[in-house]
């Protein structure tokens, strides 16, 4: 415990240590401290291998291109003057050899000739002469010498990022070698007692995490044209880590990144190691996630302490490393395309910190709708699912639902138009649908947001989703969904297509050790239940069954513990956090759990026909296909009698 | 000559052969003919090497992440219930060990604990207990099991282009291998008797061209994630070429490109070879440049006949190959960002053909101004200089100057704001300026367009340039530029900064074989002159000196032959096309020619102070610097007494 008291003492010092600065200031501090010309040298490489590299000096043409006046067309070279009298019906005749000569495109113009007649324009063409009825003006169909490139002239300036076209220009200008800035090299040192080396293909036990940040950095670095090396993970040991950092700094890399350990905890050594070997320039940026980033300089090299959480690490790379790598390599920093999006949900934010919030974005009618993704710094999947990111300024408490915010795109803008926004209840069938839609010739990406059936209806009403997963059961009518459309979407023409009849039941541990067999068992004190969130159709179903059984929510141990998806409920059961939850068969089956059937229900996708677009059409067509039904049946726990049919009010399960 | 008659006969057949189709139709024909699944297989590769590859199947998570409930903060794990009574001033005390346990971020939550108190929130912290005054709610500061990834769930759908983030997700989900589509492979066969292999570092003689298209394609292919192989150039020999194509098709490549020979000339064998080995699908597209492109299929592989001219070849790649490579590799085809630009010059176009016109684009005030670049299919430098491209539709005769057109951007939009548009007279100093501007921390790119001094003034008037190079001499006042501002830009506040006093003179062959020493010599019949275009300051200077000498333009042999730059004039002299031209010393010097001084003149950059922006400021600052003066002096033929000074009316050369 005394180690912990030491931590506590360190904590008191933390506010002194972690003095956060705005990102722009952090970048200036690093640029001021680094000697760019000393760090990144010049080298000469073959021109044809220089694509993506940056010129270190102005490049002047060695050869002209063309090096000669040449024919720009297949035809006859001639003296333009000799054709001036030609008119329709009054041809001029030129003798082959003396007065004209055949040339193919690219051929040099014979001495004394200054024009080319296109071969089609010779009205007669014999072995001895040609005749033409249209005059040729001087230099017509002639590519002049140096028309493209003049020897000695500036071809490309310094600090030019060489494109494939530029490489073509270099070669055409007779330039075989080109002076460029060295390619940047980065070494990444993964750290932490808890991290597992992915190269060993480990099976993580509780408390262990598979190290993946290095490979995210590898990909991001490659996109910046930076060579990347990862060393073996180093445990949380100050000496071992110091050795690793010293080795990396003494190696050929211009930039060294220490993965994790950049905060101010008891095992966060990055700061003290950088201080011992060189200088800490920045510890902490005014941005969340990514706040505990470190910039330092050791032996003239840039050293970066990257946070361990994947989202924080990516922010550290994108906000700090990309501008610095661009600056070091003399490239223009990439700028993300900006679009205005309408928020499907509120983004709350704390005053006093700029926040980056990732967004799932898709086109719904005329507008782009953005769903804020979870903001946990450990949520790697938010990186996968995001099409954009928005900044909540330091002086803002966030943004309201339905308000417009500016989003920076992480994908090409065209992808947003191919994204089908589905909001509402979650079912694994949506994953099957999403996967199948990606198999189309014109693929459709699903951006789905799991907010329960009622949330889906709200999204339809607000035109913030094209389709909504819904399985709302109405006790009075015994019907699904339509009574809720009438009540919550009055006056709107809502259609719905059935995805499947699915089986809901109690998900219990393998072998059902507590012998749970009916809803009444949820009242037993030893049964720990895990519930779904308010507004979820599954929760409405639970409440109905509890009422039928005469059980109040207070009698259910864990009624107030909520998860947002069937799978999350099942995971709680798998790990023993809960002994039971209500969910679909597919979730229980996927994790090898037992399933006590409780009800059959209709899982539909609702949509507004007037607002349907090509993506809706494509999805409906796919849902109607035989192969889609087959895939659902393979999941188990579903019936496909209604799958793909447009439902009618009062239809229930029939 | 009889070979030529054969060509003539072939020409008659050409209209049958070269039946052009719209690009979209060409793509459909290729996609219909190719068996994509048969051509591009599936393979399994290590997940950490999969960035940029495309999933061939849905990928489901193997591990959950986190695999356990874990602390999201450094602090104490505890039972939330035990803290509910805590209030400010009424602390709850928890014994270490039994009631709470220290945890660092990422640690698993001990059995029975369901919340974490941040270490800062412990108001007392001894070796035996902690005290807190704020309650902890259940799961507070806890990362739940499966919060990020749930084992068995869909992680990524099929046909997903894997990002660096995705690779992180794969590894975190315990996925070590991933099924992806094979990486595309392309073989390029350069052809032509006239092409020189750049790997031999040749010196081109007249009639010869350095083969560079293969390396442009290599760079463009790499950007599409396609592996690229170039074979040695093959001469214009049908047998040799057939052998090369057969070998390439029998090799591992999915796509084979024949460079040049795709048209219908006497040495264009691509079509007949593809016909002999397989099938021609398309010969000719309804697009200029790029028209003589061929698409075919041989042994199930895509075979492309690319035109030989560099711009046509690039259009063939960008319009045909990129969509087909995207389709074959299951990627979304890249879409260029669109912007509206104002044309600085008219674009004439023929009815009946869609035309692609490359544009130099830069921001001038509120608008983006685009200068159409030369449309010669051989003008590789237009590829280098273009920031965008516009399409003139098949039914259009072009676009007027000052009209708006839609441009597809070839560079990031942000680059347009860094581009300084300079229109007007050309001088090599502009190249020096352009190169120096690229050396700044915030680099500025010059987009310069050489239309003569008068053209520059017009551009200033139309706000289609930020600065204009001008050296207009007024006979009456003996002053430069200002008399022209008053006459042609009345009412506008025009400023100008001097770049240099430059020496204009007669550029003659080395050793001055014709003994040209004064303007009167231009009237000698054996002297062939090369002139500058109308509106060029140099031409105005010539006319002044001719008048002074009493010589009429008719007396000057070659007065009507025009070039647009000093360098082009000098090249004419170098190659003997002309014996003399009026131009600047720098041009003569660069090509080792002799120079007969005729006049000193002021070369200024004119601008409108009210419309100056940061780029103007940065350029002015650079022009004032001592190092800039030094660089100009090194060129020779310039005086820098006035360089960087803002000129006054009536100042002349003093």
Automatic annotation (TrEMBL), chains A, B:
SUPFAM superfamilies: MoeA C-terminal domain-like, MoeA N-terminal region -like, Molybdenum cofactor biosynthesis proteins, Periplasmic binding protein-like II
Domain annotation MoaB/Mog: ranges: 187-327
Keywords of this entry: Magnesium, Metal-binding, Molybdenum, Molybdenum cofactor biosynthesis, Transferase
Pfam families in the cross-refs: MoCF_biosynth (PF00994), MoeA_C (PF03454), MoeA_N (PF03453), PBP_like (PF12727)
Its EC number(s): 2.10.1.1
One Gene Ontology biological process: Mo-molybdopterin cofactor biosynthetic process
Cellular component terms per the entry's GO annotation: cytosol
Cofactor: Mg(2+)
Top EC class, one word: transferase
Pathway: Cofactor biosynthesis; molybdopterin biosynthesis
Magnesium recorded as keyword: yes
Superkingdom of this protein's organism: Bacteria
Catalysed transformations (reactions): adenylyl-molybdopterin + molybdate = Mo-molybdopterin + AMP + H(+)
Gene Ontology molecular function: any one: metal ion binding
Keyword Cytoplasm annotated: no
InterPro entries (alphabetical): MoaB/Mog-like_dom_sf (IPR036425), MoaB/Mog_dom (IPR001453), MoeA-like (IPR038987), MoeA_C_domain_IV (IPR005111), MoeA_C_domain_IV_sf (IPR036688), MoeA_linker/N (IPR005110), MoeA_linker/N_sf (IPR036135), PBP_domain (IPR024370)
Family: Belongs to the MoeA family.
Function in brief: Catalyzes the insertion of molybdate into adenylated molybdopterin with the concomitant release of AMP.
Protein known as: Molybdopterin molybdenumtransferase
Species this chain originates from: Desulfomicrobium apsheronum
């Amino acid at each position: 415990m005394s180690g912990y008291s030491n931590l506590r003492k360190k904590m008191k010092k933390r506010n002194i240590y972690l003095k956060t600065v705005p990102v722009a200031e952090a970048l200036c501090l690093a640029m001021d401290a680094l000697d760019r010309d000393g760090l990144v040298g010049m080298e000469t490489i073959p021109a044809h291998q220089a694509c993506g590299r940056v010129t270190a000096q102005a490049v002047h043409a060695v050869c002209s291109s063309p090096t000669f006046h040449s024919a720009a067309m297949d035809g006859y070279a001639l003296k333009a003057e000799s054709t001036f009298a030609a008119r329709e019906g009054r041809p001029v005749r030129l003798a082959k050899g003396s007065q004209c000569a055949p040339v193919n495109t690219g051929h040099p113009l014979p001495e004394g000739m200054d024009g080319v007649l296109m071969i089609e324009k010779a009205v007669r063409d014999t072995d001895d002469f040609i005749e033409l009825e249209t005059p040729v003006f001087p230099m017509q169909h002639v590519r002049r010498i140096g028309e493209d490139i003049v020897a000695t002239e500036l071809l490309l300036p310094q600090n030019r990022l060489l494109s494939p076209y530029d490489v073509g220009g270099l070669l055409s200008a007779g330039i075989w070698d080109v002076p460029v800035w060295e390619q940047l090299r980065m070494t990444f040192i993964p750290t932490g007692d808890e991290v597992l080396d992915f190269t060993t293909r480990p099976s993580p036990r509780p408390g262990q995490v598979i190290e993946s940040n290095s490979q995210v950095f590898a990909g991001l670095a490659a996109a910046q044209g930076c060579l990347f090396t990862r060393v073996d993970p180093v445990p949380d040991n100050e000496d071992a880590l110091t050795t690793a950092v010293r080795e990396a700094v003494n190696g050929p890399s211009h930039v060294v990144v220490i993965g994790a350990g950049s905060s101010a905890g008891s095992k966060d050594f990055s700061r003290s190691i950088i201080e011992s070997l060189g200088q800490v320039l920045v510890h902490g940026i005014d941005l969340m996630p990514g706040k505990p980033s470190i910039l330092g300089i050791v032996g003239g090299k840039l050293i970066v302490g990257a946070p361990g959480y994947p989202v924080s690490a990516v922010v550290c790379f994108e906000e700090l490393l990309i501008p610095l790598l661009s600056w070091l390599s003399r490239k223009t920093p990439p700028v993300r395309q900006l679009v205005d999006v309408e928020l499907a949900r509120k983004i709350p934010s704390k005053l006093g910190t700029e926040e980056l919030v990732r967004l799932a974005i898709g086109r719904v009618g005329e507008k782009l709708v953005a769903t804020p993704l979870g903001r946990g710094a450990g949520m790697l999947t938010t990186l996968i699912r995001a099409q954009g990111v928005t900044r909540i300024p330091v002086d803002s408490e966030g943004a309201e639902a339905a308000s417009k915010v500016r989003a920076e795109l992480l994908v090409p803008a065209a992808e947003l138009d191919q994204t089908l926004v589905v909001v509402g209840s979650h079912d694994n069938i949506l994953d099957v649908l999403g996967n199948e839609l990606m198999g189309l010739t014109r693929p459709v990406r699903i951006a789905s947001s799991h907010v329960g059936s009622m949330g889906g209806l709200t999204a339809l009403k607000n035109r913030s989703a094209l389709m909504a997963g819904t399985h709302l059961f109405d006790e009075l009518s015994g019907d699904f969904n339509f009574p809720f459309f009438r009540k919550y979407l009055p006056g709107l023409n809502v259609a719905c297509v059935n995805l499947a009849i699915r089986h809901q039941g109690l998900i219990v541990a393998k072998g059902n050790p507590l012998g749970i067999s009916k809803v009444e068992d949820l009242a037993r004190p030893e049964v720990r239940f895990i519930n779904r969130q308010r507004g979820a159709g599954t929760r409405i179903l639970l409440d109905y069954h509890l009422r039928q059984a005469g059980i109040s929510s207070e009698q259910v141990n864990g009624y107030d513990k909520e998860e947002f998806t069937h799978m999350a409920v099942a995971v709680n059961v798998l790990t023993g956090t809960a002994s039971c939850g209500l969910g679909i068969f597919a979730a229980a089956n996927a994790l090898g759990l037992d399933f006590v059937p409780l009800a059959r229900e209709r899982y539909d996708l609702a949509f507004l026909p007037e607002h349907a677009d090509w993506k809706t059409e494509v999805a409906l067509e796919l849902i109607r296909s035989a192969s889609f039904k087959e895939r659902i049946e393979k999941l188990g726990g579903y019936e496909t009698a209604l799958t793909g049919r447009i439902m009618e009010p009062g239809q229930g399960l029939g």
